[in-house]
Amino acid sequence: MDKRAFFTALAATIVPALTMEALGLPITAMLSFTLVARAFGSNKTLIDLITGAILGSVCWFLFSRLGLQLGGFLPLAGV
Predict the structure, then answer these.
(1) End-to-end alpha-carbon separation of the chain, Å?
(2) Could you tell me which of 75, 76, 79 has the C-alpha nearest to residue 28?
(3) pTM of the predicted model, to two decimals?
């Protein structure tokens, strides 16, 4: 077992619990996607970040269209 990949994937599962309220769904999804891609061996960090941001934004948009309460697109500090 590759311990580095395991702990990177483990970090990807912990990131949403720690960052969802502060950063919002799109950025949290971007970070988690990038970590999972890294765990699977991707070395294209910028492409992974962009892909994660796009997927997170699309998910947020679709969830909001379904009427699920996810809050604002990006939370504003202090509001």
Answers:
(1) 45
(2) 75
(3) 0.83
